[in-house]
């Protein structure tokens, strides 16, 4: 038995200190400690995926707002989310090619950006600064973005939160949209904490230019050589930030100590999903855009964005579309696009040149196929989602397609994904060719000729 004349006092002090430390860890912000992941209040409000939310947008002159869509300028609005109103919120139309096409065909069903802090830097929705209302353009199933972000999150990639929303404008029914957390300050703090790095949304000013910086190629030491990166920083950046990113690209270009400049694990997980969904309007396609770049302490990673033209539907509506759905179901996982493009995509090409990373890439594909698709998770996710949104789709007054086309779109989307998972299983096991150069009309592949790519959504639906 321990005997000490101050034992009671010592025990009491120890208990008090333990309580203080425990409370400190429960309230990390009080101590200035920021965990790697914090779940903000908005995540359990607007982005609760268990039901369809409601948003009413109040505009003084809605028709004037839509008539000026091409300008993409912010307008003052009031937003009521699930019965709670927020005034002086910035609202503008979102999109480039989709915006132009929707406008050309006489529809006002545009995707929208909602920015709480546009007029007041301190204004927010339970910590959220900005989100998008996606209109499901060329997505008859209303599932492309929703399921892709779910896959990314499933694979551990920092991804935007999403939820379905029934939108009204001045209390007039407008339709079913997908709310998507915009990757800005709130997103970065949620995923990387308060002391986060720098976020970029690289984009081209001329699609026909070389755009080497957009492709994440090292050009030279001059900051002026990287306008597609530095002109598209989401936060205020310093000269030191710019030089640090250039140094990362130089290490990537050298390809000797790539792990010093690339968050390998996160990048591999990202590319597994990116390749699965066959998104050619992306870094792994001819345009090389539609991604976010995150840099912290010289380490870069890629974050997901914009999947309405994924699942092989990028060419739909083009003058000479390639609508061979069997080709896209069997798209190779090792060389996911042509040699000319892939040689100019160092973040994929250089990483995959390392045997250990290439092996790990395949292991993550095994995980996605076995745990997301073969386990039944995917089918259950889609079925639960359809049960939730079906009645809203039926009454959607601005839908790009009919309700019957929606049902066909869901069926086609599910079949595409399940066939794609079978093809990738065959590629991983060596039964099907996993390189583009090995694929031809005579090579073994999963047959998808019984479904049509167009049934997932195409521009022609706008004529209906």
| Amino-to-carboxy terminus distance | 87 Å
Structural class: alpha+beta
Poorly predicted tracts of residues: 1-6, 15-36
Radius of gyration using CA atoms only: 24 Å
- Report the biggest beta sheet as strand number plus sense, adding barrel if it closes: 7 strands, mixed, barrel
Number of helices: 15
Taken in chain order, the helices and strands follow as: HHEHEEHEEHEEHEHHHEEHHHHHH
**Mean pLDDT over all positions:** 90
Overall shape: it is globular
User: What share of residues are in beta strands?
Assistant: 5-15%
Number of DSSP strand runs? 10
Describe the 3D structure:
InterPro entries: Spore_coat_CotH_CotH2/3/7 (IPR014867). Keywords: Membrane, Transmembrane, Transmembrane helix. It comes from Massilimicrobiota timonensis. The structure is a single chain. With 464 residues, the protein is of the alpha+beta class. Among the domains are: 1-33; 41-186, no CATH class. Helices cover 36% and strands 14% of the residues. It is built from 15 helices and 10 strands. It has helices spanning 7-26, 28-31, 62-67, 97-104, 144-154, 185-192, 227-230, 239-254, 264-276, 325-329, 339-342, 346-352, 355-373, 377-394, 403-428, and strands at 53-58, 75-81, 84-94, 111-115, 130-134, 162-169, 172-181, 198-200, 292-296, 299-303. The strands form 2 sheets. It has a 7-stranded mixed barrel. A 3-stranded antiparallel sheet has the order 8-9-10. Helix 9 (264-276) crosses helix 13, helix 13 packs across helix 15 (403-428) and helix 14 runs antiparallel to helix 15 (403-428). The longest helix has 26 residues, at 403-428. The chain is globular, with a radius of gyration of 24 Å. The model is unreliable at 1-6 and 15-36 (pLDDT under 50).
